[in-house]
Every structure is written in structure tokens, then in C-alpha cells.
């Protein structure tokens, strides 16, 4: 009853909303989810999910559990879980994520590093058997 711990479900709630026409400058630290439809300049850290809506423009580095980009992001993004770049979304910067979804039509300019969602460790590269005298490499979990 009293002193209950926050659940992961509470971190999913979008209790912080930056609306269209609103401009914020500075570092944002949120215990719950964040939705941006306005403009943000400054780093964003959230224990929950972050959604950059279709009207949102963010010039910052983002760290959150899951990140969904429908608007524009200029900066690096770290998603401990899933990063989704929707068909009208744009990310100009590097990303780290456990799961990456890029819809057809989305714009991504940067590099990506995939990590195992449960451990946060980078995926190891393993060599494939050589074919016709050429060596090929791919990423595999390990």
C-alpha cells in the first residue's frame, strides 16, 4: 500500500508532454515516459519510453528504454530495448539499441550498434565459411 515500488508499467506512462509550439532548452530527466511534439534542445534521459511525434524536432542525445521516432532527431540515441524509426521519421546521428525497426521511407544518417536487450553487450562478429575465394562476415549473437 504505502511505499510501493514503481513498476515498469508506470515508466511507460507519458506523463510528460511537450506540445506543438513549445520550445525547451536544457537537459530533461524523466522517471516516466515522454512525448515530444514541440522542439527540444538538450539531452533527454528517461526511465520509460520516449516518443518524438510527427511535429517534434529534437536536437539532443536521447537515452531511454524504448524510443519511437516519427519526427526529427539530430543527435545520438540509446534505446535499452527497441528503437523504431517510422516511415516519416528522421534520425541524423548514431544509435545503440537492442532491437531496431526502420520502416520504409524513414531517413537514417549515422551508424548503428546492436546490443542484446537483456545484457547490453554488443553482438560479436563471426566469420562465415569462405565462398569462391572471398571472405564474408556477418553479425551473429554470441
From TrEMBL:
InterPro entries: BacA/B (IPR007607). Belongs to the bactofilin family. Residues 114-142 are annotated as: Disordered. This is Polymer-forming cytoskeletal protein. Residues 115-133 have a biased composition (Basic and acidic residues). It holds the Pfam family Bactofilin.
Amino acid at each position: 500500500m504505502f511505499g510501493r515500488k514503481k513498476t515498469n508499467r508506470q515508466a511507460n506512462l507519458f506523463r510528460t508532454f511537450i506540445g506543438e509550439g513549445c520550445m525547451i532548452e536544457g537537459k530533461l530527466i524523466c522517471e516516466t515516459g515522454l512525448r515530444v511534439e514541440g522542439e527540444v534542445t538538450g539531452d533527454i534521459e528517461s526511465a520509460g519510453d520516449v516518443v518524438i511525434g510527427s511535429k517534434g524536432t529534437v536536437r539532443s542525445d536521447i537515452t531511454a528504454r524504448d524510443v519511437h521516432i516519427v519526427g526529427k532527431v539530430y543527435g545520438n540515441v540509446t534505446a535499452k530495448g527497441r528503437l523504431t524509426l517510422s516511415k516519416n521519421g528522421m534520425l541524423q546521428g548514431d544509435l545503440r539499441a537492442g532491437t531496431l525497426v526502420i520502416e520504409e521511407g524513414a531517413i537514417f544518417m549515422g551508424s548503428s550498434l546492436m546490443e542484446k536487450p537483456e545484457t547490453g553487450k554488443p553482438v560479436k562478429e563471426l566469420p562465415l565459411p569462405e565462398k569462391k575465394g572471398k571472405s564474408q562476415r556477418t553479425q551473429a549473437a554470441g
